Amino acid sequence: MRIILITGISGSGKSVGLNALEDAGYFCVDNLPPKLLRQLVATRLEEGADMLAVAMDARSSDSLAGLPADIQQLKSEGHDVKVLFLTAKTESLIARFSETRRSHPLSHRNRPDKNIADQPTLTECILREREMLSPIEGIGHVIDTSGLSANKLRAWIKDMVATERAPLTLLFESFAFKFGVPLDADLVFDVRVLPNPYYDLSLRPFTGRDAPVIAFLDTQAHVAELLTDIRLFIEKWLPAFKNDNRSYLTVAIGCTGGQHRSVYMVERLAQHFGSSERVLLRHRELA
């Protein structure tokens, strides 16, 4: 059975992710206590199902400790199990809770009297939840949803589902340093040292996917040199990541605004590795 466990920090988009998996044909269960996972898998197998997606979060923290062992047991039984961990920067999570006016799931935990004066702050709840879920984050593929729209997150998850049978997927992501380094990056390369098309007014409206910017960067010797260095580094270490049984390797390329140089480099790297590896593209700052 193909099993995707979707978990992560409250407010990071687990409901959106679960809906995307349901659209992709998965039988979905939300907020399942981890100790019931193996029982659910057995039940679905008896019903002839072969695709299952389950959302778990800190509301079931008392039984989360045993989840890694359950995952290993399911894998030993021949199931294809992947963990998708959604997270976001604390300021993004605070803004989302403020917009929806929802309380954090941990805000009333073990406080039956619900005395407002004794309740932890939202920031305290988020920090506590990160601590509780850190063992699970280490065994999953992380997606940083800070600044992502619901539509973009759905698209990213559907792209991932389409490549889930590959032994390892190379995920190239462009980003802007001024908006922060993606939390889900495994490797980060800084290309801000390269000539910036932004300062050419004729190139500024374009992106690294457009012919004028591509033609400009193609003529820059340092661009070709840095691109080669990054490519050789990935080629050298990719076998080691495969041997580590990774499902995804996220390579993030950053420039100042995430429009020109980083986009160009990601497109070039994806083009090179696409002939031999399973590749996905993300341009975080592009519409």
UniProtKB/TrEMBL annotation:
Domain RapZ-like N-terminal: 1-164
SUPFAM superfamilies to which the protein is assigned, alphabetical: P-loop containing nucleoside triphosphate hydrolases
UniProtKB keywords: ATP-binding, GTP-binding, Nucleotide-binding
Pfam families in the record: PapZ_C (PF22740), RapZ-like_N (PF03668)
Positions annotated to bind GTP: 57-60
Cited Gene3D superfamilies: P-loop containing nucleotide triphosphate hydrolases
Record GO terms (molecular function): ATP binding; GTP binding
Highest taxon above the source species: Bacteria
Residues annotated as binding ATP: 8-15
Keyword GTP-binding: yes
Protein name as it appears in the record: Nucleotide-binding protein
Organism: Noviherbaspirillum autotrophicum
